[in-house]
Design goal:
The protein folds into two domains: 1-51, Orthogonal Bundle (Arc Repressor Mutant, subunit A), CATH 1.10.10.60; 60-193, Tetracycline Repressor, domain 2 (Orthogonal Bundle). α3 (43-50) crosses α4 (53-77), α5 runs antiparallel to α8 and α7 (103-116) crosses α8. The protein is mainly alpha-helical. The protein has helices spanning 6-25, 32-39, 43-50, 53-77, 84-95, 98-101, 103-116, 120-141, 147-171, 177-192. Residues 8-68 form the HTH tetR-type domain. Residues 31-50 bind DNA. This is HTH-type transcriptional regulator BetI.
Length: 201
């Protein structure tokens, strides 16, 4: 019988081992046996906590998503400026935080995106994550722009964040956080500058 309090420790060990395994060999070859070996546990422990590999992958993605959410929330709590620009800026910063652009995280996100197209449970996670980003961006743009413009600006900035992240992940080089943020800020400021202009400008 496992010791009291071991479940969160074991789960975290297995999630970290999953990130390492995907970083080393990719999701397809990140077998239960390899993940268990990296975590220093038996194969049966994975079945006990996660049922199967898909359950473990889903838990690993929730871990990365929660790290993103927590990072943005912490940055928001530290804000002294309540302007839409300040809030949009921390959303951008959170999406390009080190927790999201390190090697294992980037490879895991890429593998997750590909795999989610074939697994409904993973696809639901992906849709939740996409909708959260869009909704948070739209909420801030809506404070200064008419709703149709706010929605368009949010879709554009969400696509730009994803695109910058994807190009960085596929480049093979260290992620240039400063450059990605600068490009996203320029788009954000361009959209915010439309405040007060006519709908057809």
């Amino acid at each position: 019988m496992p010791k009291v309090g071991m479940q969160p420790i074991r789960r975290q060990q297995l999630i970290e081992a999953t990130l390492t395994a995907i970083d080393q060999v990719g999701m397809g070859d990140a077998s239960i046996a390899l993940i268990a070996r990296l975590a220093g546990v038996s194969n049966g422990i994975i079945s006990h906590y996660f049922q199967d590999k898909n359950g473990l992958i889903a838990a690993t993605m929730r871990y990365l998503m929660n790290a993103l959410i927590d990072n943005v929330h912490e940055r928001r709590r530290a804000l002294k400026d309540d302007s839409p620009r300040a809030h949009l800026q921390v959303i951008i910063e959170g999406n390009f935080d080190a927790s999201q652009v390190n090697g294992p995280a980037m490879k895991t996100w890429l593998a997750f995106w590909a795999t989610s197209m074939h697994h409904p449970s993973l696809h639901r996670l992906q849709r939740i994550n996409d909708q959260r980003l869009y909704s948070n961006l739209c909420c801030q743009f809506r404070r200064v722009l008419p709703l149709p413009r706010a929605r368009k600006a949010a879709r554009g900035l969400a696509a730009l964040i994803d695109g910058l992240w994807l190009r960085g992940a596929l480049s093979g080089d260290a992620f240039d956080t400063e450059q990605a943020q600068r490009i996203a800020y320029e788009y954000m400021d361009f959209q915010l500058a439309k405040q007060g202009t006519s709908e057809h400008t």
